Amino acid sequence: MRRALVTCLAALGLLTACTAQGEPGADIPTPGVPGPAEPGTLRVLASSELSDMAPVLEQVEKDTGVKVELNPIGTLDAVEMLAKGKTDGRYDALWLSSNDYLRLRPDAASKVVSETPVMSSPVAIGVKPATVEALGWKPADVTWSQVEQAVQDGRLTYGMTDPARSNSGFSTLVSVASALSGAQSALTDADVTKATPRLKEFFKGQKLTSGSSGWLAAAYDRRGDVDALLNYESVLKGIPGLTVIRPRDGVITADYPVTSLKSTSAQTREDVRRVAEDLRTEKIQRLITERTHRRPVVTSVRPAAGLDTTRRRELPFPGTRSVADGLLDSYENELRRPSRTVYVLDTSGSMDGDRLSRLKTALTDLTGDFRDREEVTLMPFGSEVKDVRTHVVDPADPQTGLKAIREDTSALSADGDTAIYTSLEKAYDHLGTDRDTFTSIVLMTDGENTAGAKAKDFDAFYSRLGRDAQDIPVFPILFGDSDRSELAHIADLTGGRLFDAQKGSLDGAFEEIRGYQ
Question: The domain containing residue 361 runs over which residues?
Answer without folding.
Answer: 337-516
